[in-house]
Amino acid sequence: MEILSAVSKELGINVNELRLLSGVAPKKYKVYTISKRQSGFRLIAQPTSEIKRIQREVVKILSSKLIVHDAAKAYKISIGIKDNAKIHMANSYLLKMDFQNFFNKIKPALLFDKINSQGVVLSGEDKSFLEGILFWKPGKKRSITLVLSVGAPSSPFISNFVMYDFDAYISNWCAVRNISYSRYADDITFSTDEKNKLFEVPKVVRFALSSCAKGISLNESKTIFTSKAHNRHVTGVTLTVDGKISLGRQKKRMISALLHKYTLGILPKEDILKLKGFVGHALYIEPSFIARMKNKYGKDVIHELFSEEGM
Fold first, then answer.
1. Which of 132, 163, 168, 281 has the highest CB neighbour count under 10 A?
2. What is the CA radius of gyration of the chain?
3. For residues 73 and 121, what is the distance between their CA atoms, to the nearest angstrom?
4. Pairing outcome for strands 187-192 and 93-98
5. Taking Cα atoms as reference points, which of 113, 118, 183, 109 lies closest to residue 147?
6. Closest CA to 112 of 89, 129, 96
7. CA angle, residues 199, 202, 207, in degrees to nearest 5
8. Distance (Å, rounded) from C-alpha 89 to C-alpha 129?
9. Taking a C-beta distance cutoff of 8 angstroms, is the pair 258, 271 a contact?
């Protein structure tokens, strides 16, 4: 597979210029932090617009040759957190696990090993190009470590691809044991209707990581076993006792309270923007709830909300 020449042709950039860019690209990232949903901060490293353009083209080329497993649900067109949650909504027992610093644990050696395992041959020049264009060099100038960054448009596809062998191993292991499995980026979820069956899963996951995804490890503090007797959530979606998916009571109360203020004309402008986002999310996860809100606050309230000037 000729990658460097294909990128050159598609983007109209001279091959020699691409070589030079790949050599300096790992340091052309803007680094900042954002707050995580629950606690702590996430480090974002975002490449320059020029590097992003090349990364997107590289992904277009690679994605036509490299396979991502069906168990991977994140970063796929027309698939989202709702589809991921639906896999587990009918089962009584749930196990959630999480990878430690997922993107930053993926290095060039793992990518090239997985490309080779799928029978795709790369020249030395293409390997050097991909290493520079797709990976970020964090830390001090003398650092030689290259990792995937959270913030590069190419990282989602690369992360999904390098986990193919892991996803295949775990999926096959689960299939013969009547366990449902899915992975949404660094969140992996297992469910079943058989009590105590999930307790053996963590050991199998550790083995699969050590043999199929070297360098990636579990965040042991985020391993959670739960059942229908407790609140169950999969990638932010609530699984109800009667085997359905929901926004959850807390989010519903919050949206209802904001809509009430909106109908009274006392909701601040910045909160109207937030309400739009919440309503859009609700329409995706649980449209029947928004139907109830229309009955409660007026059938035109949602239309009026999204017709707000400057919104």
1. 163
2. 22
3. 27
4. antiparallel
5. 109
6. 129
7. 135
8. 43
9. yes
Q: How far apart are CA 226 and CA 199, in angstroms?
A: 11
Query: Using CA atoms, how far apart are residues 244 and 233, in angstroms rounded to an integer?
Result: 11
Counting runs of H as helices and runs of E as strands, what totals does the chain give? 13, 9
Note the pTM of the prediction, 2 decimals.
0.90
Nearest to 84 by CA among 210, 181, 206, 178: 181
Q: Which residue has the tokens 């698939």?
A: 79
Beta bridge partners of 29: 47
Distance of alpha carbon 137 from the chain centroid: 22
Contacts with 86 (C-beta within 8 Å, 6 or more apart), sequence order = 245
Nearest C-alpha neighbor of 230 from the set 54, 96, 60: 96
Start-to-end Cα distance in the chain: 46
Q: How many CB atoms lie within 10 A of CB 45?
A: 21
pLDDT digits (tens, 9 = 90+) for 183-220: 999 999 999 999 999 999 999 999 999 999 999 999 99
Return averaged pLDDT per consecutive 10 residues of the chain, 311 residues in all: 92 95 95 80 92 97 96 94 96 96 96 95 96 92 84 97 98 98 97 96 98 96 92 92 93 97 94 95 96 94 83 45
* Residues 223/95, Cβ–Cβ less than 8 Å: yes
